[in-house]
Each structure stands twice: as C-alpha cells, then as structure tokens.
Amino acid sequence: MKKLVCVALVVLSQLITWNPELSTVLAAPVSGEITVAIFFEPLNPGQTKIDQINVDAETTLQLGLFISGLALNSTSVFSFQGAEFQAFEMYAGMVISFRNVVIFAPNILEVDDDPFWTVQFAQPDPGLVGVSLRMFIDELASPLDLAKLLAPTLNTPLEFRKLISQMGVNVYGVKFSITMLIANFGITNQPDMHSGFIFEAGGVTLGGAEVISQTYIGARQGWECFGECKALERYFEGRVVPGFEFQEEKLIIRNLTLAGVTLGAEFAFDFTTIELSQIVLSLRISVLGAVVQQKIVLNDLATPSFVSFGWTVQLGEGLFEIEFIDPNGLFQFPAKRFSFFVQWEGISFKDELVIQDPVGLLHTLEVTAEFDPFRFRSQTAFLGGLINGFYNQKVEMSWGFGGPGAWAWLVTIEAQLRREYLLYISPSMSVKF
Amino acid sequence: MRLVTLSLALLVVVAALTGCEGSYRTRVTVGTLTLPSGGTGVVRINILNPPDAKAIQVGPTGFLTFDPSVIQVIGLTGVNGFTVFGSTINNAMGWVQFAASFPGGSIRPIIAAGLGVLEIPIIEMTVQAVGAVGAQTALTITAVDLFTDRVGQPVPMGPPLPGQVVIAAP
Prior knowledge:
heterodimer, A: mainly beta, 22-stranded antiparallel β-barrel, four-stranded antiparallel sheet, B: mainly beta, eight-stranded mixed sheet, 10% helix, globular
C-alpha cells in the first residue's frame, strides 16, 4: 500500500509539471495543438458575380512530451501536397541546458536580418534570391502570396535540412552558450552540408546592464525558414554560410543607465570586409513625465542600406512615435513615420501615417478589442491620402475558450478587402489538448 | 478622450502641412546618381505608392530618355522580385524601352514593425559615365505604356518623376 502511494505521488508530480520554458502548468505529460486553416482567394476578383477560387489548406500539428526536465516537441505542417515541414525539438535543462532541433523540409531559405529580410540563398531557387520577404510577410500582404511564391520549392519530398544544437551553462552569473548549425543546401539525393558555430558569452552587471558577446564562425546574423516560411517554420539562431570561416563579431549592450539615461547599443564587426557592418543605438530618458526614446539603425556601413532615427514619447496612456527613415542609406530621410497608440483596458487604437517624398502617403487605422472569449482586430489602410484613397481592409475575429491544463479551442475568421475586391477569406480552428 | 482628439488633430495638421491630402497617385520614379568620369553605377527605377504593382512597360510609345554624350546605358536588371523580360537600349539616340513584371507576386508598401517604405525599387539600370566632369543628364520617362496590378487592372498613376546623373571628378 505504501509502495502504491509512493508511485501515485510520483505519477502525480509528473502529471502536474511546472515548465518555466513554456510558462504553463501542464496537467499531463503529453500536450499538443492542432490548427486547420483554409484560405480562399477569388481567381478573378471583382470581375464576376460567380467566380472560381484558389484554395490553400494548411494543417499544423504540435505535440509535446514532458518528462521531468526533458521536453520533446514535434511540429508538423501539412498541405494539399502532403507533409511540408517537420521539426523535432529536444530541450533538457539542469545545470547545463541542451536544445536540439532537427528540421526536415523540401526547401531551405537563408534570410538576411536586414529590415527587408532579403533572401540570400534558397534551395530550390526559382528566383528567390534578392526578394524581400518583408513584402510577403507583412500586414498588407495576403498569406496566399507567400504560398504562391514558395510553392515551386515545395515539390520534392521532405529531407534533412537543418540541425540546431545549443548548449548553455551559467558560471557565476556569466552565461556561456555554443550554437552549432548544420544546414543542407543540396538538392534531393545530393546533400550539400555546411556547418557553423555561434559562441555567446553574456551577463548582467551589478548596475543592471546586460553585456553579450557573440562570435559567428561559418554563420552570420540572420535567420532561416522552411516550408511555407510561416511563423512556426522560422528559426532565428543565425544562418549558415558556405566556408567555415570567421564571419562576424557582435557586441550587445542593454539597459546601461548613466545619469538617468538608459542606453543600448549593438555593434557588429564583419571579418570578411574588416569593418563595422551594423550599429544600433538606443536611448531612453524620462523628461517631465514623458518617456523619450531614440533609436538609430545603421546597416552595412560601407554602402549604407538603411538608416532610421526615431523618437518615442509616452504621455499618460498615449504613445507617440516619430521616425525618419532612409531606405537607401543616403541620410536624406525621404520617409517619415508618425504613429499614435492608446489603450483602454481591452480596447486599443493605433493611427499611423507614413509619408515618403515627394507624394507617398500611407495612412493606417487599427482597432483591437479583446473581451474573453472574443477578440476583434480591424486595420484600414489608405494609400495616397489621409482617410482618402482606400487601399486595404483587414478584419480578424476570434472566439475561443481555454485555460491551462484544459482542453481549449479557438475559432478565427480573417478576411482582407483590397480596394474594390475581396483579396482572401480564411476560417481557421485550433484545438489544444 | 481628449488625448485621442488631440492626436487626431495633430495627424490632420501634419498631413495638411505635408500637402498630401488627396494627392493619391502612384508614380514611377527614377533615381539620382553622381558618377566619377568614366565610372559605372546603378540608377534605380522605383514605384512610389505601389498598389500591388505587377507589370510595367515603357514602350512602344514611351521612352526613358538620356543624353548619350553624358552616359551610356549598359543594362537593366529587375530587383525585388521583378524580372526584365525585354529591353531595347539605343545609346546612339539616348533612349531605353523595357518590359518587366513580377511573375510570382506583386509589390506593395511595407508597413511591418519599425518599417514604413512606400517607394520600392523594381529595376536597376547600369550606366557608364562618358561625359566630361560637370556634365549632367536628366533621366526622363516620357510615358508608361502599361502598368497593371495583381489582377491585371490598370493602375491609375501620375506622371513619372525624372531622375538625374551628374558626372563628378573622380
């Protein structure tokens, strides 16, 4: 009987596991989520009363198994073509933490971490190198545009594409970690393996400032994505580049407070060009109850590709942002962004104006309301005028119910109107178990 | 509520000051470039306020004109998804005609977090400076013959905005 009680206690402790990585209480060692989303796109929008449609259906299955300090996760994505993406992730954290991710996909995209998310390498590549993924992963874009862009890369079976292996240890407050990346840039049955390492050391000073140093060998800043490049298929640990050579050194300083001014800085040194390749400076100060923030981003200093200066001022519940942007890096700042955001409990409102010389103007209005179990979001965009020149209307509505350790479900409908026609409509449903 | 009213009023004032109210026009713009004598460089052809721009054609009616005693055009390359399907370069008369499109998509403004970009380059034109130091030439698109959006509809647009190449001392 005593033995039985002991076993029951052990089983109970396993069943009710607090996992800090996932910030959730798990009532069972196995959990998961299945999401089915269908996208309908009219073939000849606005031209006929009865139209044909493009349909894209996507099912995402996430499974997790938690045993004491060990977490095993599986993410699978299926479409009409069959399996498009499969990732297995193992995490074990005690004194030394380990994380291993193995990814299988028909394709691989290496993406620069510049503001436009420029594709640097793709396999297969039907002309993707040089394309700005930001134009496809953006509020105004249709998810079907990205699906159509990447569809030619998804015709082959799943194969090994990436291994991410991380090990971290904390020694007297200094965290050391090593990330090993192995990527397969080859085509079907002709693997072409490349590897890279990222060494990281960082800690927090007594004053609260965080300092991190990163060394990239055979890898660079950036990210990789697979399958249809959806959020679950993106990995931001860095991107592998051919040739196992020193590529970059990065120094990150956060929360450095001097005389009431909170400073942050990121410097990236490029070993291949022997020069600073990126500087990000941020400043935060409180003046007369207002919070002023300034951010300067300089990319690719040899031939600057993007420069921006921004200020954020918080006045009570309202947040004002002003940003001067030069996408060409010529310090002429043809683009300016003004935005205002305010939130009252579950309702938020954002008004944003982007102006670009000589007559470019984009005005967006966004309203979000969240009252459990309902969520509503509307974004209206006007191109070329202030509440004038209607361009796009996006609406998302969700209704769900759930809680930690319980079955949960969420039904969402999303639609986008583009000028005078329906761009797409997408119902989706998620079930957690 | 007063804060919201104030902010909206502020945005109206900003828009009025910038003179943008009601100025909805998609424009084809040509970039500017300063080149050393004998050097080569790239001039960008862009779309400003691009409402799902998919295809563009300058010719047979329209031309991109330049002074052939100042620059010579070497070639045209599509960027940001655009591909130049055909081009005619006449360096003797000083004009270029081209047709380009985005086979897998279309371009639109980018408003992702922290970004606000309304002018997207679609073609890079490589030019070589052949004129003397101080010489300059306007790059003028006389007319856009075809400009369509993602569903093949013509995009209403304003007159193209010219660019310039200036020859500077090396």
